[in-house]
Design brief:
The chain is α+β, with helices and mostly antiparallel strands. Helices cover 22% and strands 53% of the residues. β2 and β3 form a beta hairpin. The longest helix is centred in the middle third of the chain and has 15 residues.
């Protein structure tokens, strides 16, 4: 029997939502063992005073299996 834990993280990119997700998962893999997946809870963009998008942010829940 395995036991999993879920944590919530936020990640940001100046390129795309997909890049933000990739950055978040890469960082999670550096800090956690047995990362098994993630789901996106929310997305947000930042913009400048002219309405141009300057950043993409994702709020994600990452699942990892606890060791024995």
């Amino acid at each position: 029997m395995s036991v999993a834990k879920v944590i919530e993280i936020m990640a940001e990119s100046d390129k795309s939502f997909e890049d933000a997700v990739q950055k978040g998962l890469k960082q999670a893999h550096k800090s956690l063992n047995n990362v098994r997946g993630a789901w996106i809870e929310g997305q947000k963009v930042s913009c400048d005073e002219h309405g141009n998008i300057t950043g993409y942010r994702v709020q994600m829940k990452v699942t990892f299996v606890l060791g024995s």
